[in-house]
Design a protein that fits this description.
The complex is a heterodimer of chains A (about 300) and B (about 550).
Chain A lengths: L1 H25 L10 H34 L17 H29 L16 H6 L10 E8 L2 E6 L4 E3 L2 E4 L4 E7 L4 E5 L4 E5 L5 E5 L5 E7 L11 E7 L1 H11 L5 E2 L3 H9 L18 E2 L4
Parallel strand pairs in A: 1-5, 4-10
Antiparallel strand pairs in A: 1-2, 2-3, 5-8, 6-7, 6-9, 9-10, 11-12
Chain B lengths: L5 H8 L21 H29 L10 H36 L7 H20 L30 H29 L12 H32 L13 H12 L1 H22 L6 H15 L14 H13 L1 H15 L8 H24 L1 H7 L3 H31 L5 H19 L2 H7 L13 H31 L57
The chains are: A alpha+beta (about 300), B mainly alpha (about 550).
Amino acid sequence: MKIWNVSIIIVSAIALTLVSLWIGQQAYSWLPPQAAAESQLIDDLFSFLVTLGAFIFLGVTATVIYSVTFHRAGKYDFKDGPPIEGNITVEVVWTVIPILLVLWIAGYSYQVYDQMAIRGPMEVVHLHTPMGMESAYAAPMDSSTKPVENIEVNAKQWAWVFRYPNQGVTSTELHLPSDRRVHLAMQSEDVIHGFYIPAFRLKQDIIPKRTIDFEFTPIRVGKYRLTDSQFSGAYFATMQANVVVESAEDYDKWLAEVATHKPSPAPNQAAAEYTLQTKGLIKTGWPAVKPAQPPLVNYSN
Amino acid sequence: MTNISVKDINITSGANPDHEAGTGWKRYFSFSTDHKVIGIQYIVTAFVLFLVGGIFAMVIRGELITPESDLVDRTVYNAMFTMHGTVMLFGWTFPVLVGFANYLVPLMIGARDMAFPRLNAVAFWMVPVAAILLMASFFVPGGPAQAGWWSYPPVSLQNPSGQLINGQFIWLLAVAVSGVSSIMGAVNFVTTIVKMRAPGMTFFRMPLFVWAVFSAQIIQLFGLPALTAGAVMLLFDLTVGTSFFDPAKGGNAVLFQHFFWFYSHPAVYVIILPVFGIFSEIFPVYARKPLFGYRVVAISSLLIAGVSALVWVHHMYVSGTPGWMRLIFMLTTMFVSVPTGIKVFAWVATIWGGKLRLNTPMLFALGGLILFVFAGITGITLSSVPLDIHVNNTYYVVGHFHYVLYGTVTMGMFAAIYHWFPKMTGRMYNEGWGQLHFWLAFIGTNLNFFPMHPLGLQGMLRRVSSYAPEYEFWNIVASLGGFLLGMSTLPFILNMIASWMHGKPAPENPWRAIGLEWLVSSPPPVENFEEIPVVISEPYGYGKSEPLVAAAGEVHNHK
């Protein structure tokens, strides 16, 4: 009888493991395409966490559902259940296992973060720690390539403007060369904005009056969306821009061509809506912050 | 005669003149100092605000059912999500739990009332004041606050209406009032639990709900001053031109985030700990088994309170936070899963092999448990820095958060309302309507909040009033789930009103539960206990049938 019980538990555990592994593999398809080198690392971590999570969730839920199905009291059964108050061994085991899991997850997450080396602001708190973050700078993901592009990102209510200082080009569309590490210097003119490209899995707040450094490596040619990830006021949802990742040649060609364009005001949804609002039929009369001047750029989409 | 202590007077004389405020419905509109009246005042007020916050949610889900911004103005939308978050947190979850704690803690520890009954009443009456303030902001020229319930500067410092009395100003006042009220409550609860326990009610004989309230209120004591101070500083920045947080004038915008999250993450544990307490009360009764690992579960509440002081930066991984800080707070945040895991395993072990009865309270508790396990797992993914960088401020977070606050907290509150309804009103609720309510709420919760996870993973941001067409499918599902969730409260409201007026009279202990509150009549008399009980055993003695209290005349043997 005991062997029978043990084998049921073993079979269930194996089945649970297989199902969890399968769900963990599915996790990749829940995410946008992997358009930056960093996204591959993050997706692997996510798949790992989904596998673990599925195992725990299904394990707990199955146990509860089993009890609810098979341990119901009959209509006239007013007896109590067995008065089991605890079991030290079991309690120690289920305290130690989560602690080990936490250390494992934290260690793996640290490793991924270290490899990403996306930078971000270090100047806020001047503390030299033994946690190895400095060395992370020395060894970014692809140590053979130093960041080749330095692009200035300027966020304001509600527009993105990108400036390529070497070519003197400004644009409302962010063009990036594929397979090269890029360096962004991000600034905000007014409130906190957030730089977020879901396909890159990367996000960084842009704090006013500070320059935020940010590094990553796009790897997949295509067109993606950049959004403002930190609530920035009335027209928050309109603060979007296209991100075009292209081959190095196409990228250089684009820069050279755009440099010849004359700067002109870019179309801006927030500004358009702000003017429309005053003509609307149903008005609450609630004022909104006036959008910043449409930026003058060499290139807009 | 000469050596009677203050404690004796409080507990045994029970001569509180305010308690003679009558017994009819009118006492609920009076400045009553009876903890039971105050408890019900809190619960009913909170529920009304829950409905208000729910209506705001319906507007939000109505707007998001299509990708375009076409139902309300963007300013109105921003006010809706700001007020939804504010009302649901400061108007529903905190007050409703304080209401239950108010009602149950003195009964559960064998006291006649809270330590400071008048402070208790003052603390309650500040809640309607804060709520009326908030609602009044709909009528000022600029409309209500629109900066989100976080109110991050500099957005919250922008004042397009140009008026001194604007929505953000009122919002900050209301938050400060609510903060002061909660600090008063915290002082009262901690004092009551430490000083007013009946003879024999040692700490390790306290019900787990009392442990949970105790731990949660300790968080209030260290955390709330930070939020209240942050709110007052922001108010000064907004009105008199100080520059704590305004970068344009040399202030530090990120500093506010530290003030805010230093309290507002632990606040989640303030809310959820009592719900864990409620689960721990309910599972043993309806499984007819002692709570598995009582002492570990009790201590885990205090552990959660302790660790909670060291997790706030996980809201700020992308806020310009240096790498070492991101990593330290990742580890502390993940460690919260250890004491919560202990609780979950203990509940599952309590249910295992029991004699289960799936009455409405048990259904809500089981549903809440399963939804909480899901929320806990997504919580771990959020604490991991690299993954959080991707999903931070997306609907993934909103989904996680609503599994915690609707799936767990609100389900737990409904479990508590049904479980203690006979005690509070002296009448039984209608079981069929209760079960209908559960199933509508459980299905609605999952339809509403599950789709937020795929949306967030795909990159849909929170607080947007319009979105890319590719997000439409899951938004439609979420909105339909939201409307179902809204409807699910109808059978609840009908059940509560009809049962309170015409329900079957409830006996003292309809669930055959163990606990001091079940030893008194339903509803309990004004001063709770004719004679203060003497506790002689640990709680949750299901299956052991040992008496909880000493019979009259036996008292001296058990000192």
